[in-house]
Amino acid sequence: MIASFFTSILLGGLLASTTPTSTKPIDPKASDPKKETKAAASEWISLFNGKNTKGWHSYGKETVGKAWKVMDGGILYLDASNKADWQTNGGGDLVHELELQDFHLKLEWKISAKGNSGIIFWVQDDKSKYDHVWFTGPEMQVLDNDGHGDGKFVTHRAGNLYDLIAGPEGVVKPVGEWNLAEIVSYRGKLDFYLNGVNVVSTTFGDDAWRKMLANSKFKTMPDFGKVFSGHIALQDHGDNVWYKNIMVKKL
Question: What CATH number is given for 36-65+95-235+245-250 in this structure?
């Protein structure tokens, strides 16, 4: 997310660091007394087939910008060599056609030196109403913490709920290595996992959530974090970034 687009509001009392308690994500259904049967349980859905960009489009368009490329090995790559302000010529934020409510998303990402990107969810796919995907969708930050300026902000580092909740340090892997990211949104509970560690855990839609939004840079965006269903987007922030093994399970 662009650090310079708004003035970041950092209120110590609202920065919630989560202590890692598990090395593996917990199935949100495990504590549900009305646990679904195996026959009814959702299966993993691949959002990227590793061969082409079927199911995706650049935000506000019907097709995928040419800067988003498919590489050997089933890798989705943003070639940001041709800049357009803070984004990429022929790039744009990439949005998947599938609309999700309760879900478990997992993917792997790798960022370039001094790079910035993000995994955005609950996106309302309507550019005629919202200029950017992050006008509506919260973000799990993808960042070179040490090389990018956003790394100086405690809630802007890799794995954070961007500008809202900080996670523990020492979880992200060095630049050039793959990171496993997971987002679980289920019945008013939101959890982020980075490399198997639960880095963010919060509720949403309640008074605490609304207060947190009101004290963030998103307070001027009336629909940000207000609709708890929508699309997944991968952010073009004008830096090279790689994604693979993108899949989701409906919960």
Answer: 2.60.120.560
The model's pLDDT over 172-194, given as tens digits with 9 standing for 90+, comes to: 999 999 999 999 999 999 999 99
**Of 97, 144, 100, 98, whose CA–CA distance to 118 is shortest?**
144
* pTM for the model: 0.84
Of 128, 150, 147, give the one whose Cα is nearest residue 235. 150
Question: pLDDT tens across 116-133, in order?
Answer: 999 999 999 999 999 999
Distance CA 157, CA 161 (A): 9
